[in-house]
């Protein structure tokens, strides 16, 4: 089975062809991506209008590149998948409409993929991984601890009550004058810094319900930065290292609680899985690997290139859904909001845009 996947929910335009072999393994035949980071950097974050226009400019080019690199024509595919949300609605409309057009002209089925589900299933593209598994989904817009029981079957155990994990990295970077996106920048500086220099809070530590709250940590970073300003490179490195140590402690503690809750309420997971952009963070991976191993589980994380947004994860989610006969029609709306642990309907009226 071969699927084209299109991703346009945020600031990356991506297209990929993925094949599922008879052995059940996924093979990435092409994985094209164009980042818009340079166009947003001056603003310190993603500007939705700029993002939507940039997706329009390159979506068709990337699809062609992905097909060419895979040596495929549309007729060689079994379906066309696109992220139909959640995300910036202008971008989502571009990707979904492109997929609808391709599905119409080729007569292939359309698969409207939830971007979060694509992150959640992406480890199954590269690893043999059975349901149910405990997933930490950590990206710029989302921080969730979910039990993944099957395709389309998710139980949310915990979430953030304020900032997302990636957002906390991005805001910390911004406060320190580092460029967007902040996660890789903070990680780079943290490697050179002293994690013990600043005493930062670990919000929610020890709390039973596995939720996150990160705004207190963000405020503490701001106060420390203001206290030692003007910041030297050493100060920036030390703040980054101290922040990263704090957020890793929080993530490990919250994940430990989720594991406990999952075992008590659902059953033993087969593995601990991390996905989303923050899963690219090496310190986070190491700490979670220790936690998983302490609990007799493996830590499964997608390769770094598949952690952040990409087309291959959309294509793979399309394969998982198409195998179950789950396809979508031309009336499928793009969604700004689309929680994973809910059935697609009812959608908030303002999130529906007719295309
Ligand atoms: O999944 P993703 O590519 O896009 C969203 O769906 O949000 O995640 C992007 C987020 C950004 O907040 C970025 O700063 C963060 O992931 N990120 C990282 C790292 N690489 C990306 N955070 C921490 N450490 C990293 N190495
Ligand atoms: Zn994402």
Please report the distance between the alpha carbons of the first and last residues.
28 Å
Assigned CATH architecture of the largest domain: 2-Layer Sandwich
User: What's the helical proportion of residues?
Assistant: 40-55%
The succession of helices and strands, N to C, reads EEEHHEHEHHEEEHHHHEHEHH
Give the amount of beta strand, in percent.
15-25%
Count of separate structural domains: 2
Bound molecules: 5'-O-[(R)-(carboxyoxy)(hydroxy)phosphoryl]adenosine, zinc ion
The CATH topology of the largest domain turns out to be Nucleotidyltransferase, domain 5
Strands in their spatial order, largest beta sheet: 3-2-1-4-5
Structure summary, number of beta strands? 10
Q: Tell me the structural class.
A: alpha/beta
Stretches where pLDDT is under 50 for at least 5 consecutive residues are: 343-355
Element layout with pairings:
Blueprint: E1 2-7, E2 12-20, E3 26-35, H1 37-40, H2 48-70, E4 79-85, H3 89-106, E5 110-114, H4 115-121, H5 123-126, E6 133-138, E7 143-150, E8 153-159, H6 165-175, H7 182-190, H8 215-228, H9 233-265, E9 272-275, H10 282-294, E10 299-300, H11 304-307, H12 311-323
Parallel strand pairs: 1-4, 4-5, 6-9, 9-10
Antiparallel strand pairs: 1-2, 2-3, 6-7, 7-8
The chain binds 5'-O-[(R)-(carboxyoxy)(hydroxy)phosphoryl]adenosine and zinc ion.
5'-O-[(R)-(carboxyoxy)(hydroxy)phosphoryl]adenosine binds near residues 169 and 281.
Essential attributes:
binds zinc ion, disordered C terminus, Nucleotidyltransferase, domain 5, 5-stranded mixed beta sheet, alpha/beta, 10 strands, 355 residues, binds 5'-O-[(R)-(carboxyoxy)(hydroxy)phosphoryl]adenosine
């Amino acid at each position: 089975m071969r699927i084209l996947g299109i991703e346009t929910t945020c600031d990356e335009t991506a297209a990929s062809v993925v094949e599922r072999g008879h052995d059940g393994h996924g093979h990435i035949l092409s994985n094209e991506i164009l980042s818009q980071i340079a166009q947003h950097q001056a603003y310190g974050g993603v500007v939705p209008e700029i993002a939507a226009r940039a997706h329009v400019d390159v979506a068709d080019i990337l699809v062609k590149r992905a097909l060419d690199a895979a040596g495929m024509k549309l007729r060689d595919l079994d379906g066309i998948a696109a992220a139909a949300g959640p995300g910036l609605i202008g971008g989502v409309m571009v990707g979904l409409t492109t997929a609808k057009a391709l599905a119409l002209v080729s007569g292939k089925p359309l698969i409207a993929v939830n971007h979060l589900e694509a992150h959640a299933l992406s480890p199954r593209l590269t690893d043999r991984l059975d349901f149910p598994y405990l997933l930490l989904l950590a990206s710029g817009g989302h921080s969730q601890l979910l039990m993944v029981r099957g395709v389309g079957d998710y139980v949310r155990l915990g979430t953030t009550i304020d900032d997302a994990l990636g957002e906390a990295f991005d805001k910390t970077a911004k406060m320190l004058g580092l460029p967007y996106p902040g996660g890789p920048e903070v990680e780079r500086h943290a490697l050179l810094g002293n994690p013990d220099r600043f005493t930062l809070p670990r919000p929610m530590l020890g709390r039973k319900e596995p939720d996150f709250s990160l705004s207190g940590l963000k405020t503490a970073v701001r106060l420390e930065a203001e206290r030692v300003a003007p910041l030297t490179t050493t100060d920036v490195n030390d703040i980054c290292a101290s922040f990263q140590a704090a957020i890793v402690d929080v993530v490990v503690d919250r994940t430990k609680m989720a594991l406990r809750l999952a075992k008590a309420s659902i059953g033993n997971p087969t593995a601990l899985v991390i996905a989303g952009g923050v899963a690219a963070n090496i310190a986070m991976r190491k700490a979670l690997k220790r936690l998983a191993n302490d609990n007799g589980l493996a830590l499964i994380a997608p390769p770094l290139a598949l952690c952040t947004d990409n087309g291959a994860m959309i294509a793979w989610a399309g394969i998982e859904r198409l195998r179950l006969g789950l396809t979508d029609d031309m009336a499928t709306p793009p969604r700004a909001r689309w929680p994973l642990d809910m059935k697609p309907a009812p959608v908030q009226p303002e999130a529906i845009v007719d295309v």
